[in-house]
Amino acid sequence: MIFDAHCDTLIKAEAGRSFLRGGGDCHIDLPGLEAARVGHLVTAVCVGFSPSRMEMREIWDRAVENWNAFSTQVTGVNLHFALEGCMPLYLGWSPPAAPLAASLTWNGDNPYGSGIGGTGGLTSLGRALALSLHRDGTRIDVSHLNDTSRREILSMGLPVCATHCNARRLCDSPRNLPDDDIREIAAMGGVIGITMVPHFLRDSGAGADIAAVADHLEHVAEVGGVDSVGIGSDFDGVETLPEGMGGVRDLPLVPDALRRRGWSSVDVSKVASGNWTRFFGLDGGSR
Fold first, then answer.
1. Which ranges of the chain does DSSP label H, i.e. alpha helix?
2. What are the boundaries of each domain within the chain?
3. pLDDT category, 218, cuts 50, 70, 90?
4. What angle do CA 240, 246, 251 make, to 5 degrees?
5. C-alpha angle 25/27/32, rounded to 5°?
6. Using CA atoms, how far apart are residues 252 and 95, in angstroms rounded to an integer?
7. How many CA atoms lie within 13 A of 57 on its CB side?
8. Is 93 buried (19+), middle (13-18) or exposed (0-12) by CB count in 10 A?
9. Residues 6 or more apart from 247 whose CB is under 8 A from it?
10. DSSP-assigned beta bridge partners for residue 4
11. Given 6, 107, 163, 190, which residue has the most CB atoms within 10 angstroms?
């Protein structure tokens, strides 16, 4: 079984018409999930890239409509709702389900803090929201925070994750995590989901392939331990994918690559799904 901790399929305009039957322009659809044996999928909503409140509302409404359709008609795959940036909460929009995970910002600044495009840190509202989300059982996702905001979240001692980040040591992008933060997230029981975005795998994206995905998985496992790494594809949030990968049907290529490198079946299972189910309390443990 595979646990994919991040995709953007909910905000794709055509997702609602093609998700259930397949054959659309999305990286993810239900037939593909079933073929790849994906047992859990975290579907995020991001409205932070639009400067217009009207456009943001259109994206939000489309995503909620898709969530309501998917979550009521899909069986065999556990779908989870997530917030990629918390502007909807600031604007008073009610999520259609309790978020499994939430990032305070997207790439820019908002009332809660600074993403990778900003230069500040967390605001007092951001700290209060992080505590409130934690109390409600939503895990804090640091994927889009800049270094200052991420360090301030880590200093709060809350269990956090990075649903779709890679290792900065291997690819020098501000969206990737430095080794010190990988260690700290791991020490608090957190998990880092390696993403399939080519320019987060290799500088400029050149040469990004399944082997590059395995390189980042292995690096995080070496730095933080094998319990600290999983998969967070970012499917439907990016135009291009690693060489040899066309979408969700190809996700099994990732654990296959680890097996070829000599990983044990137990450790491959942890990366494929076990670490995420443990972190989110979906394995029978507490959150």
1. 15-18, 30-36, 53-73, 87-90, 124-135, 147-155, 179-187, 198-201, 210-224, 253-260, 265-269, 275-279
2. 2-279
3. very high
4. 110
5. 105
6. 31
7. 6
8. middle
9. 26, 27, 28, 32, 235, 241
10. 41, 231
11. 163
Beta-bridge partners for 42: 80
Is the Cβ–Cβ distance between 175 and 193 less than 8 Å? no
Sign of CA dihedral 5, 55, 14, 201: negative
Q: What is the model's pLDDT at position 287? A: 53
| SS3 per-residue string spanning 2-15 | EEEEEECHHHCCCH
Backbone angles phi, psi at 26, to 5 degrees: -90, 155
Instruction: Give me the sheet containing 2-7, strands edge to edge.
Output: 160-161, 139-141, 101-103, 78-84, 38-45, 2-7, 229-231, 192-194
Q: How many CB atoms lie within 10 A of CB 131?
A: 13
pLDDT of residue 38: 98
Supply φ then ψ for residue 194, to 5 degrees: -70, 130
**Position 182 pLDDT exceeds 60:** yes
Position 128 scores a pLDDT of: 98
Which contacts (CB < 8 Å, 24+ apart) does range 250-257 have?
Answer: 250/36, 251/2, 251/4, 251/36, 251/38, 252/2, 252/36, 252/37, 253/210, 254/210, 254/213, 254/214, 254/217, 255/2, 257/210, 257/211, 257/213, 257/214
Query: Which two structure tokens, joined as six digits, stand for 213?
Result: 């995905």
With contact defined as beta carbons under 8 Å apart, do 60 and 47 qualify? yes
pLDDT in tens, 249-277: 999 999 999 999 999 999 999 999 999 99
Q: What angle do CA 91, 97, 99 make, to 5 degrees?
A: 75
DSSP 3-state of 144: coil
Q: Is 208 helix (H, G, I), strand (E, B) or coil?
A: coil
CA distance 33 to 251: 9
Q: Is the pTM of this model over 0.90?
A: yes
First CA to last CA across the chain, in angstroms? 21
